[in-house]
Amino acid sequence: MSYIDGFVIAVPTANKQKFVEHARQFDPMFIELGALRVIEGWGDDVPDGKVTDFRRAVQATAEETVAFSWVEWPDKATRDAAMKKMMEDPRMDPATPGNLPMPFDGKRMIFGGFEQVVEVKA
Q: Whole-model pTM above 0.85?
């Protein structure tokens, strides 16, 4: 089964287009390095919970929207090799000319790698 990297971030709502442009610049690198697909989701129905929720998890303010993204890899080994290459790639360096700055506060991003244990398809 595939391996999934998941990301939740708070993006200033005014930066939605910058977020899309940033994703269009950097997401193809995942595919280039072996990812099967990359999904970028913009919060549309993200309710406040009674105990916890996505907004609290990333300390989103009223002026921010929660974005939820994931990268599907064929396996963990491919993901690990790709992440190592990405961290060494100058295209990931914000100081590299032409690279777009992150349109969100990366310090509040939550992320993790997940082993797929169940898959149900239509």
A: yes
